Amino acid sequence: MLIDFSEILKTFGFSNQEISNRLDISIAKVELIKSKQLYPNKALAQKIIRFSKQKVSLTPPVVADDFQFGQPIKLKRVIFSIILIIFVSLLFTGFGHQPFWVFLLVLLIGLFVTLPSCFNDYWLINRNGLKINIFSSSGTTKLAQLLHIIPITQRTIPYQDIDHINIIYRTRPRTSPFDINPDIFSISLYSEK
Questions:
Q1: Calpha distance 162→119 (Å, rounded)
Q2: Which residues contact 117 (CB under 8 A, 6 or more apart)?
Q3: What ranges make up the beta strands (E) of 13-161?
Q4: How far is C-alpha 50 from the geometric centre of its chain's CA atoms?
Q5: pTM for the whole thing?
Q6: Apex 191 CA angle, 57 and 12, nearest 5
Q7: pLDDT tens across 115-157, in order?
Q8: What is the C-alpha to C-alpha distance for residues 6 and 23, in angstroms, rounded to an integer?
Q9: Cβ–Cβ < 8 Å for 50, 163
């Protein structure tokens, strides 16, 4: 979903020199933006949007089906994670060589601390807008949401309500060949409402 800044600059009705003066950029940059060879950075994009008196229209993305951003919750994955936590709890308590209460304590810590941290919010992007599935920040509530006892909070945002989106991707320097931590990727969505 991109804003066509080329069209916005063309509809101003000003010369390139006037646009350059009003936006405090060079004439060459104005020409590059108009010819779609340069997409403005965040600060310049905000200047252009503020400068334009018209409503900026966004072109919705063309998607055939729901595009998934993040990992949706599947009951099979939750059950597999619970079985794995039970196995690790049994392993840490010596498969019955420790008192039963020690096993229960390790199991509860695994269920209430480890399991909720394995699942995060996710988005579904379709033709109508964004559908955001949001988990609670409380560990016990999030565990209940994972087990489908409490429903997951869902928010639908139509494309016309979106003001702008920031996408940030940064690679993490790898400190060793065994470093499996992911790169940093985040999306910030700003809506009018």
A1: 26
A2: none
A3: 67-69, 122-125, 129-134, 153-158
A4: 26
A5: 0.51
A6: 30
A7: 888 888 888 888 778 888 888 888 889 888 888 899 989 988 8
A8: 14
A9: no
